[in-house]
Design brief:
heterodimer, A: about 220 residues, alpha+beta, Protein Transport Mog1p, Chain A, six-stranded antiparallel β-sheet, two-stranded antiparallel sheet, 6 helices, 8 strands, elongated, B: about 180 residues, mainly alpha, Rna Polymerase Sigma Factor, Chain: A, Arc Repressor Mutant, subunit A, 2 domains, 9 helices, about 75% helix
Chain lengths: ~220, ~180
Amino acid sequence: MNDKTTGVTGDADERPRRPMSEERFEALLARALEVEVPEAQARQPAAPRPQLRRSALPRWAGLAAGVILVVGVVLMQLRPPVGTGNLPSDVIAHIRHEPAALVRTTEAVSPEEVDRVMLAAGVRLAPTGATMTYVKLCPFRGEMVAHFVIQGAAGPVTVLLLPNEEVPSPMPVDEDGIQGTIAPLPDGGSIAIVGEPGESIAEIQNRVADAVRWRL
Amino acid sequence: MSEIERRQEFDALTRRLRPELYRYAFWLGRDRQLAEDVVQEALLRAWRAWGELREADAAKSWLISIVRREHARTFERKRFETVDLAELEDRLPGPGDDPEVAEMRRAIFALEEQYREPLVLQVLLGYKAREIAELLEMTSGAVLTRLHRARAQLRDALGVQSPDEIASETSREERT
């Protein structure tokens, strides 16, 4: 990291220096370094679920669509079971973990930021016509995924693009006052999309799903 | 060892070390959310490579080095070129009810990474200068110099006397 902060500054030299024993200084230093650990960190299962990531796909997979299909099928066969995790619950828990994303706002994130996150998440996202007000690369069930929010008619609509979560058919999400769906994407993986009750989730889902392509 | 046993062993180890890993990541990046992300990703990588670890005693250093690499990767990915100190201070954890701790945290926050990291490794994680030198790929002498300078800068920031100053003041008082 190129850190341009240049050490400690301030008016320390102008005030009289008070005595502090070495023992007290060291004890204070140790206490200061022991920052509080978020409860979520302490509670999280230590071993992430082992999953195949998109980056594990061989490079030559991009050469032909037929080969991609075969590789995808093979990966699906080899993929370890998801385990005890319930996908809709994990989606809700993840969204609850980032309340800043659920703010109703009209302030759009910059296209550069969107591009940066999508590139890191292995996504090509064509314009959707919607205003994106939040975008972040997030750890989700052991992989880094694109998490973004667009403003719907009823409020913020959250979208997670999940390259390695396969669902055979649309799966409803309805927990904790949040409703939506997790649906398969044409190129594999799935899209989780949730919003306030009464939101036109299906319409937004179709629009976003059409705009998503995975990078190989 | 079965898959379940491997997972249980990994879980037990990382559950014990996770607070230290989080704090280390926090003081590296000075950002709570970033620290959570870095630890999460580091543990994922560690789990994938768990079978390669031959010595259980080396697990802590192994995990620390993975967190360190993951932190560097994350910063590279985010292309952070500069850090605004005022903005960073907003990310400080709550000072609790001790203003001295809060003041010390601000001072640690303001240290350059080259001083902050060895200090965290020594005080928080209990590493000796030789071990820090191995991890940071530098000489033990250089580590000791940085540790000394880190403490000197903290004392300056807090406006407290160094051990030398205290000793010379004491001897002056004894003479008079």
